[in-house]
Write a structure and sequence with these properties.
Blueprint (H helix, E strand, L loop, with lengths): L5 H27 L16 H41 L6 H19 L3 H15 L2 H8 L5 H10 L5 H12 L17 H15 L4 H10 L2 E6 L5 E6 L2 H18 L8 H14 L1 H5 L26 E6 H4 L7 E3 L3 E3 L1 H9 L5 E6 L18 H11 L15 E4 L14 E4 L1 H8 L4 E2 L10 E2 L5 E2 L13 H7 L39 H5 L23
Parallel strand pairs: 3-6
Antiparallel strand pairs: 1-2, 3-4, 4-5, 7-8, 9-10, 10-11
């Protein structure tokens, strides 16, 4: 199998986890007995018994999660080995048909042993074999550093990659010595859906087949699905290009938010499908005159076409050379992920009002940092924080930007400044929790959102994007030589021979000193026009690439 340490090492970890659980159980039983005034167990001077028993429950959950991962590693290795033994028992001169039926037989046997479907057993075998072929992934799983869900994501996202591509993806996330390792929280510290988003982003950028080619196939496969469900309900799903789906989601969300008020009893979650149903079924009446019909369950929404729907701003982070059509590397659509460069160029060229273009500096793959000396936040600063954080920064939260609020990490009244290093996104729920509990954010910085410390002292590392130097057009590389030879110690690309295209002077950092407080006159002023961050398409012309 090529797994470091083998099954014995994994089982040793299982035994250690069980022993730790047993020790916690004995300590808890001792505390519950009320005999903690005697000798034998030192719980520390001044330790609150209830607080300690609460802590024991958290430690149990942590150990149980580790144990589940270790057992999943044992299960994966055993399933993969079962297939190997079956193949070893198949005669060398067996026909392809006999080998196929032998593989089918072992899958059915595993399905029967585990009491799962044949399809589930087949998926388990395939995922197990792929995980066991990637030692760094298997080691992290067998050590309990991440869950089976995390390992399965790697198995899913490496499907279709070459062996070299799969190893490169794994090294990026699991090998600290890799050329450009992932930043921020480790894989096991991210909830699975966020880990999948990061893995998929890397995969899209480094996939041997251009995203544009894969996107064309995806567009051809677009469809609508209808699935009846219980309780008289049903699901309707649309498989669409990402920008279209994102626009639909943001329009329904923004319109639902605009309809909320003291007389509206429905939640945001309930309003979204009501609005979508009205848009699909009653678009003619909504925009027409004199429509009085009301669809069942949509009271208060029939006049939706007469309401000025709030604009749902979406950020599109586009590498500068890709915007010019000189490269085809993916752009990033806020709330969705990587999109083809052609889609980003279309969004920019068509002047889509809800999409804000953010250029990526070719030297280091990062957008512009903007300082701010006032308490009041400009839209430019809010969008910058959205770019850096991508979602609510609270551990495990997946709330995306449309519903989030920009919060001072260190309160203004306690000396906190209003710049991106002291700002972070929080969803309304976690914003309130921060102000009414002992959850404490770390300081942020220019490129990294804050980590968090819980009331029990557990620290959670931040999650943030992994910007990389963008692709350079081949004609520029031919003109100035191999770009790889011009990398700085930080990994950012230097301009060849000191050449700096004129338009990229606008991408330099604006360093504005902090101010102790704004006056009324200052609050009325806005000294930072938005073009300092969000350049128009016309600002980048062909002469930039003329050399």
């Amino acid at each position: 199998m090529g797994i470091s340490g083998g099954l014995g090492a994994v089982l040793e970890g299982v035994r250690a986890s069980v022993a730790a659980l047993d020790a916690l159980e004995k300590e808890d039983a001792f505390l519950a007995s009320g005999a903690h005034g005697g000798a034998g167990v030192d719980i520390g001077a001044g330790t609150d018994v209830l607080q300690r028993r609460y802590g024991i429950r958290l430690e149990r959950l942590e150990l149980m999660a580790r144990l589940e991962a270790q057992l999943a590693a044992v299960k994966a290795e055993t399933a993969a080995e079962a297939v190997e033994f079956q193949q070893a028992m198949t005669p060398p001169d067996a026909s392809i048909q006999d080998r196929t039926y032998a593989d089918m037989s072992v899958v059915e046997e595993i399905a029967g042993v585990l009491t799962i479907s044949s399809a589930a057993a087949g998926a388990l075998v395939e995922q197990s074999r792929r995980i066991c072929s990637l030692p760094l992934v298997f080691d992290a799983l067998s050590a309990g550093d991440m869950s089976w869900q995390h390992a399965r994501i790697i198995a899913d996202e490496t499907e279709g990659l070459t062996p070299e591509g799969a190893l490169a993806l794994v090294a990026h996330f699991f090998d600290p010595a890799a050329p450009q390792p992932a930043r921020g929280a480790a894989p096991g510290e991210l909830i699975p859906c966020r880990f999948r988003a990061k893995v998929r982003g890397w995969r899209e950028r480094h996939h041997p087949e251009l995203i544009q080619k894969r996107h064309v196939k995806g567009v051809a496969d677009r469809r609508m699905e209808y699935i009846p469900d219980r309780d008289g309900m049903a699901w309707v799903s649309l498989y669409l290009p990402g920008d279209t789906a994102c626009a639909i989601w943001n329009r329904t969300t923004a319109t639902a938010r605009g309809l909320q008020g003291p007389d509206e009893e429905r939640t945001l979650t309930q309003l979204r499908p009501d609005i979508a149903a009205i848009l699909l079924l009653g678009a003619g009446q909504m925009a027409g005159e004199g429509s009085t019909g009301t669809a069942p369950g949509t009271q208060g929404v029939t006049g939706i076409g007469k309401l000025p729907a709030p604009r749902a701003d979406v950020l599109v982070m586009v590498p500068a050379f890709a915007l010019l059509g000189a490269t085809d590397e993916p752009a990033v659509l806020d709330g969705f992920g990587p999109i083809p460069a052609s889609m980003a160029r279309k969004l920019v060229a068509d002047g889509a009002e809800s999409f804000y273009r953010v250029l990526v500096d070719p030297r280091d793959g990062a957008p512009l940092e903007i300082g701010r000396k006032y308490y009041r936040l400009t839209e430019a600063i809010k969008r910058w924080v959205r770019l850096r954080d991508a979602k609510c920064t609270f551990p495990g939260c997946t709330n995306r930007t449309p519903d989030n609020e920009t919060d001072h990490l260190q309160a203004w009244q306690h000396g906190g400044t209003t710049n991106v290093s002291n700002l972070a996104q929080l969803c309304p729920k976690h914003h309130r929790l921060k102000h009414h509990s002992q959850w404490t954010p770390d300081p942020a910085n220019k490129n990294e959102p804050p980590g968090w410390t819980s009331p029990t002292g557990r620290h959670y590392n931040p999650e943030h994007p992994d910007p990389e130097p963008t692709h350079w057009p081949q004609r520029l590389l031919a003109l100035f030589g191999d770009a790889s030879e011009r990398e700085t110690s930080a990994g950012a690309l230097e301009w060849p021979d000191g050449y700096v295209p004129e338009h990229f002077g606008m991408l330099q950092e604006l360093d504005v000193p902090d101010d102790p407080g704004p006056s009324e006159t200052e609050l009325a002023a806005d000294p930072f026009p938005e073009w300092s961050l969000f350049l128009d398409f016309e600002d980048l012309e062909a002469p930039v690439l003329s050399g």
